[in-house]
Task: inverse folding
């Protein structure tokens, strides 16, 4: 199942539990996509639209982590772990952007799906073994619950398409992310209407 977006999760849930559940859903979604695609492209014509939904869910997920967790972790830990995680996010976004440029029948489509599936698994393992553990240790349960309530809003404001070139510097990123999210949703709406 692909995380559906703003309506799911939030109230009364620890942000770490919500994001960990999204990791499971994203890993499953990308694994299913890889199984349905060959090296040259998808065997199933539904793979391309499913890949677009999975990419949008992954972009929202990464943005949510960047909005809600990373600023708090950076304030507590100065060892560069957040900066390394952001580099990984940009790498995933670069692959998603490359995938966005391909049709389902283009050579390399299946290869990019596999890169993304591996990247998502690696992202989940790294986040859960390091950053999420730190967050759970250093941020009180009440605070994690309050942040969990912010997840639906963060998802609603998040972009739906990859933007690896957007600078990570705060407060600039905090200012532009909602506008990029709006622009992406307009673009999504227009592409669904065939315009």
Result:
């Amino acid at each position: 199942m692909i995380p559906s977006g703003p309506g799911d999760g939030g109230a009364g849930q620890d942000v770490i539990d919500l994001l960990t559940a999204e990791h499971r859903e994203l890993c499953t979604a990308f694994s299913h996509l890889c199984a349905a695609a060959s090296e040259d492209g998808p065997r199933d014509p539904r793979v391309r639209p499913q890949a677009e939904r999975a990419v949008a869910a992954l972009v929202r997920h990464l943005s949510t982590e960047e909005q809600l967790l990373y600023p708090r972790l950076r304030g507590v830990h100065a060892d560069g772990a957040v900066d390394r995680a952001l580099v990984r996010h940009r790498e995933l976004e670069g692959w998603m952007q490359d995938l966005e440029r391909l049709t389902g029948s283009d050579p390399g489509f299946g290869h990019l799906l596999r890169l993304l599936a591996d990247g998502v698994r690696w992202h989940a393992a790294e986040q859960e073994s390091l950053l999420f553990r730190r967050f759970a240790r250093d941020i009180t349960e009440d605070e994690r619950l309050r942040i969990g309530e912010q997840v639906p809003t963060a998802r609603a404001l998040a972009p739906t398409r990859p933007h690896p070139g957007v600078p990570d510097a705060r407060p600039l990123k905090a200012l532009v992310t909602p506008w990029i999210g709006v622009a992406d949703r307009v673009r999504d709406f227009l592409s669904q209407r065939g315009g």
In short: The helical segments are 15-36, 47-68, 70-76, 81-100, 109-138, 141-157, 172-192. Residues 109-138 form the longest helix (30 residues). The radius of gyration is 16 Å.
